[in-house]
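Sanity check record (used in CI):
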Amino acid sequence: MNQALVLFLTRVVFPKHFCTFSSLSPKFKVVFFFFFFFFLCAKAGVVSKTEDMSIFPKISLKPEVTEYLRSVFMNKEVLAAVGPQEAECRFQKLLSCLSHPPSYTCVRASTHLAPLEEIHDKLREELKRQTCSPSEDCIQILPHPRVNDVLLLPVDGPRPVKQLSSEVVVGAQCGNAVLRGAHVFAQGIMASPKYMKVGDVVSVFSDLEGSCTRGATSFQGKKVFVGNGVAEMDRSSIFCTGEPVRGVGIRMVEPLYQSPSFDGVLPSLTFLQNLPSVVVGHVLGPRPGERILDMCAAPGGKTCHIAALMGDQGEVVALEKSRNKIERISRNAHMLNLRSIKTFCCNSIQAVSSDSAQVTEGPPFPPESFDRVLLDAPCSGLGQRPNMALGFSLKELRSYQPLQRKLFHAAVRLLKKGGVLVYSTCTITLAENEEQVAWALHTFPCLTLQPQEPRLGAEGMLGAGLPPEQLRLLQRFSPELSWGRTAGKAEAADGDTIGFFIAKFLKN
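Expected output for NOP2/Sun RNA methyltransferase 6:
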């Protein structure tokens, strides 16, 4: 180390303290110099702060998918509006935030069964029993200021949790669930120590690439640490039985992101649902006595919300092409004490009858059978969080747009004149969102965009050729716009969500 440089810096920058500094040991002077150099670099912008909030790697995608998304978020309209540097910054923030959980857990309250305040108090008591804590302060439950059937629970994380030598590896979906407050169910465990017994304390890792062999005793592939837990089952009970394994395998005691587990917590009064998904039901605006269609209804969260908003008065028809998923919708409806929901196993593309005089309880239905239609379309799901890796190809990503358009044709035919159609996805591409709106307005002159209430997200994204007045009527939840910013509680909850898109149409 150049002693003259150290002396020069201290004389110039800290002249008052030079006498004290000069009396210190040479080793301390060297340490001081490195810290001071790092400070200057940070002040000058050499040390990037883009990743300040990132504890996990950016979402892992196939290179072709990453480049496709880059072209979407850096299209000509966006570049002209915000410039290449800001567009690139937003895109990098998007890749980072997708691998992290939102900062709030959103709970939809069954306000058709009890007042929000009563549900709030019961939930607090239930969570106090779960955490075995007498303190009220350790459980924070906030009513949403603008959505009157939503309770918000702040997520604490990332927390300073020490990794242990004993490791359990779980599948990526299981790891994502742990980051949202779940325990590790046995079927999600891929690898464990050879002699793991009930009561062992273990570190839990998520397999990023799905390459861990089930039953392995160790794993050296790409993985991320999600917290520590206590084994509820022996290794032999998880891997050495011929029967499908069920139940909690690892109970999380030190998760990296602390969020309450809602397994069995007030099942008839609370429903875990992402905030934008709750907003969809309110935007649809169901009224008592109406007949409403939910075209792609599984797992039934939005279906049940529609019925609750109607006061369970009217008829909600839920269509789903998978029989197993239909049963799940029925179970949710029964649990939430909703009797206005009717479920049918049907591909919604084929839900329209060619005979307008035909009157049947189930599909196919005559044209113009419904007052309102929700098309929460099958999509690429790129807005879901946390998601650390997606293995699908660009061809698979592009396969959703034609399917969504077929469903859109059926939706418009089934909707009455003067009726409302809401189209939504949990993805972030232009092709599945704003481009679909532009296509629909051109294809169906009877459709016009409508204002949305409540409005918590941003306006539509540039790039689909829609004019500003139409973009302002769309609602896009863009977590990258708030990623890394400090904000008030309500603002943070509204911005730090999954990626989501909503469009509302009126059939003239």
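The domain at 274-507 is CATH 3.40.50.150 (Rossmann fold). If this sentence no longer matches the regenerated tokens, the check is flagged for review.
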